[in-house]
Amino acid sequence: MNFGFSNSELTKSIIWLAIALPLFFCNACHQDAKEMVDIVFNKETSYTVKSTDVIMFVSDSGVTRFRAEAKEWYIFEEASDPYWYFPEKVHGEQFDSLFTVSARFDADTAYYYTKKQLWKLVSNVVAVNREGQQFETSLLFWDQKGEKVYSDRFIRITQGDFVNTGVGFEANQTLTRYRIFNPQAVIPISEKASADSTATVPPSTAETAKQQ
User: Fold this and answer.
1) What is the pLDDT of residue 104?
2) 10-residue averages of pLDDT along the chain (212 residues)
3) Are 90 and 72 in contact (CB under 8 A)?
4) How many other CB atoms sit within 10 Å of the CB of residue 121?
5) What are the residue boundaries of the structural domains of the chain, listed by start?
């Protein structure tokens, strides 16, 4: 059955379809490819590398100085100020020349500006030095070039049974020497210290308060 077409007409129709259909699909493929080419790459907001479940080591002069762990790591190396971005929780450890942990930190989010060698830690930032002093704030900068740590936000420093609070502080990068710009209070937090009227401020904290 040829539905009213002669054999020659039917043959011509099949040949026409055989030519037209590939042209149609090729045209569609060409349009899709053109749409992909037209996407604009924004150097400031488009990452060049993405990694997940990252453990990284950073060395200086062949010596490992820093270790970091993160769920996600984005690299924006084409940005005007190149940086790494860690959108989820990040944990970092700093080592001395003997590969001993001299300080560690945790934060919800982190940025690392590679040219400046500057870390920016954001939200629920907790840093601890080798002596066990704990620094808590909402924003913390670690300047590796300048070898200092600083913040202009509220800071809570816990040392043994005492809590030292204030707004804004600066420390060396191992957090063993620090200065609070606007100190608020030194509060004994243990029941023993609260009951003992002769309790004194630990030497390192007293030295900090004296500098004010």
Assistant:
1) 95
2) 45 41 46 54 85 87 85 94 95 88 96 94 97 97 94 95 94 95 79 41 41 40
3) no
4) 27
5) 1-39, 49-211
Tokens of 174: 């191992």
Half-sphere CA count of 120, side-chain side, radius 13 A: 10
Question: CA-CA distance, 12 to 15, in Å (whole number)?
Answer: 5
Per-residue burial over 81-97, b if 16 or more Cβ lie within 10 Å, else e, is ebbbbbeebbbbbbbee
Report how far residue 38's alpha carbon sits from residue 24's, in angstroms, rounded to the nearest whole number. Answer: 21
- Residue of 212, 209, 153 lying closest to 186 (CA atoms): 209
Q: Taking Cα atoms as reference points, which of 153, 156, 101 lies closest to residue 133?
A: 156
What does the CA dihedral 63, 65, 67, 73 come to, rounded to 10 degrees? Answer: -90
Quick check: 173 and 151 in contact, CB under 8 A?
no
**Strands of 28-100, DSSP E:** 49-60, 63-76, 83-86, 90-95
**49-211 CATH:** 2.60.450.10
CB atoms within 10 A of CB 146: 14
Q: Are 167 and 184 a contacting pair, CB within 8 Å?
A: yes
Q: One-letter amino acid identity for 81? A: D
Measured from the Cβ of residue 141, the count of other Cβ atoms closer than 10 Å reads 16
Q: Which residue do the tokens 């043959």 mark?
A: 11
β-pair type (178-188, 134-143) = unpaired
